[in-house]
Write a structure and sequence with these properties.
Layout lengths: L2 H13 L22 E21 L4 E25 L2 E27 L5 E26 L4 E20 L3 E21 L4 E12 L2 E3 L8 E19 L13
Antiparallel strand pairs: 1-2, 1-9, 2-3, 3-4, 4-5, 5-6, 6-7, 7-9, 8-9
Length: 256
């Protein structure tokens, strides 16, 4: 067989071989830094321990006849809604929440009321105050400042607080009174939020709330007596959020 025939035969055999094509394999999505931009809503559960300071103030004497310090504790639960905007690693946001509260306490105290006799001498009368107090609900409106680190978002938060408060008093020699109040105050705290699956995140948070002074004159028979109350509340809670949207740059809660 001539060389030309060998070349022709080899070419024909090569033409019959299957052509190998490149197979496209989709690259798995990378796990990366979450973009926290978006609106979210969720729910939370927790426990709260408050300190209430109560003064029975005598306007005639210009002084407190008795000062009480009490601890109110109980479980809390509620809902929250908020929004985030991320630039670089900084995350700016706001959050509003409403909480139902089971914080309550009952206590009693004995104290002396000093009065002035007609002859100018002073007399002390022993009296007993029985009282029950309850924080029924509270809400906060706060700004948030966080630092995004992958799937984690530690943050600081602060703003305004609002709540409801009820006191039932029985003071011997004065009478019985029930007082329901709305109170206002400030709140600060911090926490950490983490992306888990799809658009869901979980968080753990601590808040400290301090109310402005709550003042009442509930005793019709003794209008000179004023009750002054202030609330210092420590809140520990965990929650879950659903993030409705993310920004155009970055990734969903679990994918880039």
């Amino acid at each position: 067989m001539s060389a030309a025939a060998v070349v022709i035969a080899g070419s024909a055999w090569a033409a019959d071989l299957p052509i190998q094509r490149n197979v496209y394999v989709e690259t798995p999505a990378a796990i990366g830094m979450m973009n926290w931009t978006g609106i979210y809503a969720g729910a939370n559960l927790g426990y709260s321990r408050a300190k209430g300071s109560i003064d029975l103030f005598d306007q005639n004497l210009g002084m407190s006849d008795v000062s009480l310090s009490q601890r109110l504790s109980g479980f809390i639960g509620g809902i929250q809604v908020g929004g985030n905007w991320q630039t670089g690693n900084a995350v700016f946001g706001f959050e509003a929440d409403f909480q139902g509260s089971g914080q309550s306490v009952s206590d009693s105290a004995t104290f002396a009321v000093v009065t002035t006799n007609p002859d100018g001498t002073l007399a002390a009368t022993s009296m007993t105050a029985n009282h029950s107090d309850k924080i029924s609900s509270f809400a906060t409106l706060r700004g948030r400042l966080g630092l995004a680190t992958g799937r984690w978002l530690p943050y600081l938060t602060g703003g305004a607080a609002y709540g409801t408060w009820r006191s039932d008093f029985t003071v011997s020699g004065i009478g019985t009174a029930s007082v329901s109040n709305k109170w206002y105050g400030g709140v600060i705290g911090g926490g950490v939020e983490a992306a888990i699956i799809d658009n869901w995140t979980i968080k753990a948070e601590y808040l400290y709330i301090e109310s402005a002074m709550i003042s009442n004159r509930p005793f019709a028979a003794a209008p000179n007596f004023q009750i002054n109350t202030r609330i210092h509340d420590n809140i520990f809670r965990v929650g879950a959020n659903y993030l409705f949207a993310t920004g155009s740059v970055g990734c969903r809660p679990h994918l880039c």
